Amino acid sequence: MRPFVYNRASDPTTALNMLSGKPNAKFLAGGTNLLDLMKEDVERPAELVDISGLALTTIKTITSGPNQGGVSIGGLGKNTDAANHPLIRQQYPLLTQAILAGASGQIRNMATNGGNLLQRTRCPYFYEVSMPCNKREPGTGCGALEGINRLHAIFGWSEKCVAVYPSDMAVALAALDAIVKVRNVGGQERAIAFADFHRLPGDTPHQDTNLAPGELITAIELPPSKLADKAYYLKVRDRASYAFALLSVAVGLEMAGNRITQVRIAMGGVAHKPWRALTAEKMLVGKEATEANVRLAAEAEMAAAKPLEHNKFKVELGKRSIVLALQTALNGVG
Amino acid sequence: MDENEVPELSDDEKKLFEDLMPEDLNDILDTGVNRRHFLKLMSLAGSGLLAAQSAVAEQLFTKPIGLPTSAELAPASVENGVNVAFKVNGAARKLLVDSRMTLLDTLRERLELTGSKKGCDHGQCGACTVILNGQRVLSCLTLAASCEGKTVQTIEGLAQGSGSTVRLHPVQEAFLKHDGFQCGFCTPGQICSAVALIDEAKRGDASYVTADVRKKAAPLQLSTEEIRERMSGNLCRCGAYANIVAAVQEVQHGKPVEQTFRFSA
Amino acid sequence: MQDKNKLTGTPISRIDGIAKVTGKAAYSTDYPVKDLAYAVLFKSTIAAGTILNIDTSVAEKAPGVLAVITHKNAPKLNVNGGLRGGSLLQSPEVEFFGQHIGIVVAETFEQARHASHLISVDYDKKEPKVDFETLAPNAVLPKEKDKADASRGDAKAALSSAAYKVEETYSTPIEHHHPLEPHATIAEWNGDRVTLYNSSQIVNGAQTSAANTLNIKPEQVRIVTPYIGGGFGSKGGQWANLVLTAIAAKQVNRPVKLALTRQQMVNSVGLRQQNLQKVSLAATQDGKLTALAHEITTHAAIKSEFVEPCGDCSKIMYDVPNSLITYRVVPMNVILPTYTRGPGKSTGSFALESAMDELAHKLKMDPIELRIKNEPARDPSNGKPWSSRKAVECLQVGAKAFGWEKRKAEPGQNLQGNYLIGYGVAAGTYPAHQRPTSAVVKLKRTGNEVTATIELAAADLGTGTYTILTQTAADALDLPLTNVTVVIGDSDLPPAAGAVGSVGAASYANAVNDACQKITDELITRSGKQFFARPTASQMMLSEKITEYKTRVDAKPLESAEAYSAHSFNANFAEVAVNRFTGMVRVNRFLAVTGAGTILNPKTARSQIIGGNVWGIGMALTEESILDPRLGNFVTRSFADYHVPSNLDIGDMDAIFIREDDQKANKMGIKGIGEVGIVGVAAAVANAIFNATGKRVRELPITPDKLI
Known about the structure:
Protein name (chain C): Xanthine dehydrogenase family protein molybdopterin-binding subunit
Shape of chain B: globular
CATH topology of the largest domain in chain B: DNA polymerase, domain 1
Helix content of chain B: 25-40%
Largest sheet of chain B: 5 strands, mixed
Organism (chain C): Fibrella forsythiae
Shape of chain A: globular
Keywords (chain C): Molybdenum, Oxidoreductase
Largest interface: B-C, 102 and 101 residues
Order of helices and strands of chain A: EHEHEEEHHHHHHHEEHEEEEEHHH
Pfam families (chain C): Ald_Xan_dh_C (PF01315), MoCoBD_1 (PF02738), MoCoBD_2 (PF20256)
CATH class of the largest domain in chain B: Mainly Alpha
Order of helices and strands of chain B: HHHHEEHEEEHHHHE
Number of helices of chain A: 13
Oligomer: heterotrimer
Structural class of chain A: alpha+beta
CATH superfamily of the domain at 230-331 in chain A: CO dehydrogenase flavoprotein, C-terminal domain
Helix content of chain A: 25-40%
Domain Aldehyde oxidase/xanthine dehydrogenase a/b hammerhead (chain C): 22-127
Strand content of chain A: 15-25%
């Protein structure tokens, strides 16, 4: 860990000012990923601005604007508090499940909602500084492309980077069409649609998100949802708990009898960002929720996958997991 | 000692025995243990047990629990020093720390509180778990600098008293009784985690294995499955999980969990 | 039989328990040594080649740095001094990825860690040998004599003419011990004598190997290790970090603390090697084995060899007239493999006991019946009688307790919700040995109270040594437990066997018992009196009004034990649930039935067994260290990538001990439980998965991808 100057900010404006114009300074919130990476010498900030004490922790019903009736979650609230808030548990149980599927009780008590979205990949070539990695050090190549890539992407990867994004929470947020509210040093706020928040690697894998330098995530907004009755977050992993996903599926359905009127499916562990299964969603809307229809949609979605040498299993696992997640959302845990 | 005492134990003795080794009581009563044996066993019971173990413990290269004395002295070269004032196990501490110093290293290297362990230093094992402002967190991923004004409870702060008058926290007692450890290295983290977990259940917090997170009930009585999931952030390489679950369950449910030691002729 | 009047055999809580639950137990890095400096190792980033230049100048100028030590300025050490794995900074040669190439010492840990990232190295890189699959066909006969081809009868001929046979290859990956306490040392010199606070399963071994490597006398080295945060073989033989801490402390003339990081553990302190095991079984239609061939291919390090004995179970488990056991090994650019829990037996039994299950399936026979049918009356490998063998009882008792009759013989037939349920069984064994151990017993009388102190350089890595020795001494001296103090984990104490290979309890308890008997004898003799009934040592101290008395015993194994084959045996039962969609496996229930002689403490013994079972479940389902075959680095270098089982991975655990009174193995009849608990476990789980799904997975670990 390189030496760095530590400063504590007491309010968002001060925090933004403290970071302004310093390309090598970073916000410190929960620290669960940033300190981990600093110890590995992957992240090398010269200054940290501690924003963990800012009052951006409120969870409340949105009372005006396009998302009226939805819920806003403070960017610096803890994952545990978001998962357990009555508004989230009642109206967005999918988000509760996804948060609780991630990490451990201790880490969820530390990690913030905004910070969760900024988690970096767990790719071992990214983590070990002696390895080639375009994300960590552009131009050095991708160690995983022709190396060990069992855990890597099957959708949307490039020759430059095949890493996957590790968050569980974000997979649910993708399914829920969340909006990320950010503020810059000038005090201007903007809203980023969740689908636009994370990026595919392309030629710039070092850029994980479309957050501009110096911007602060102030809140995550959840539009009103009718998916609460039938929702499920399925996480498949190498051990039962406290492990990153091999693959995960967040689903939410709205039904009219046995007919699907609305469906959202997002996948984790398959791409550089949460992967919305739009093909499958389109195929299912208006259809009956039969196992055959679900299977066809899952197969169609996974047909576009481009697996690497060691992760071919994710294609079949993706199909099965979409089916199981939908089945569970419809019928409960079996 | 008298070899010819009658095998029957008094009610008080039975009670004492039940507290110590409930799983053995019936066996002992059925087979008619003699009083001499009973007294030998009883030398372990209650305060006797604790005194004996503490007495042994004191001799076994254990460390005195850090007191606010000279520990505040900063090393010769502190870079990017940050002054931090916080409370550790009830005592106010003030130190100048390197901005890079984690809470874990501060406890261990500066405050002589080495109970919290460094198993991985990257948030992947739970051995460094402490209770910060009432919440269990990983001290290896917490900067000391960020603890200004906060309250830290470590394993050293759970028991009351010391030596022969030590009064263990119920979770510590349950770990001892159920053998919720072997090497003991993950134990401080497991115990801090369990202590906080019990509060989380009281609040009605959900977990990934909670069948329906929309149903909110508090306080919760946790199933073994729930305890397993909620304790999964604490790895135990010796494989004491079944015993850890029994210990946590005993305290969380507030009633003894049976221990069975099975033999076949 | 358990004596109701004895403390041994009772489930008392750990003597060291209070220290452990209060955080007061001091492990290697917990000692409050004054004026500490901190060391951090840095490592090679290639797997084979030579260091051409190593630039330490930036690190040396970094704040707080006291010294940077590399092969260029390290003192001369004896590389054959008994430490494992090389990496002693004696040459520019690089033999594996992550070999230690230097140490930074600084005022603070933060400064040392930072400076360790400021080293730049130029290498002359060579093509590393790390791709086991490609190298395996060129494997050769190991150098160790006990790994020579062992043949009885003609297994190949019997196989070629067999009516029923199984010929399959089973694969187990590299695994790491990963004790929760990473290897760490505090070195403190006092003149020409150094104290090394260092977790050591073999206290005297650590002392002599450190001394020999440092070119000093053993009495100049003191190892202090009262608590060990897990070892599982990796803290048996010691590694370079022990002595590198000592030379760092010498160099900066201050005590130095050096702890490996978790990431450094993968290439610093050994590993369990990858094994390919071909098992061939031949049998008659009624299930009598006619041939058993177990052919093992594995790897070692590039210049030194260690081959775990995967064929050991196959040597003795079954009565078979034609047997062949062979080993082949290929050198690789990896850290030297070493003893890992249940060395050879845990991996070997996976192959053998999976093959037995496959054979039973082919014969349409119950796998328990098949095993019982081939129970050997004597040790088939040497013709010796068993000191005791309860393998059949383990199977039978276990079957009844587990509800084996509920198993559906046809695989894939038990679907409950989304889960396929399956039952599996597998047997296991581990040898029982006693090793020479000395012990001192000191008695002290204060008024009418007698207390005892027991001293020996034994180790307790969570195994329960403190507790069982306190119980043993209390019984032998007729004292309450509270009046006995056991002091171990210090090389200044009388020399003792290591806590390795399941020899600890037998070696230590017999020595302590002998010492207590000897002190009683001596006190009786000293009194010059005659007794009708043998008095106890404490009675003698009181009646003779002796204030202090001590004696020492140098206990040796029974010579008569040589005439017998002494082993622990077990039977493992697993119930698994396999998610039919995702392939995720859950072990719902696990039962181990063990015949391991005298059980000194049922509480700590049960913990040892279920702990071994958890290891076996990890081996079966989650644990795998993966090398990049191009670069030679482990891509599974942290606890996020290398999955030891978590709490939720483990279902209901149950253990039953078969009572055994085996005084042929050793006087106290102790056969050891630390290792046998893992043997047969992975096979039981794999067999249960086959029973659940109809899929036979011969490559561990059985991760979800292998079941979809």
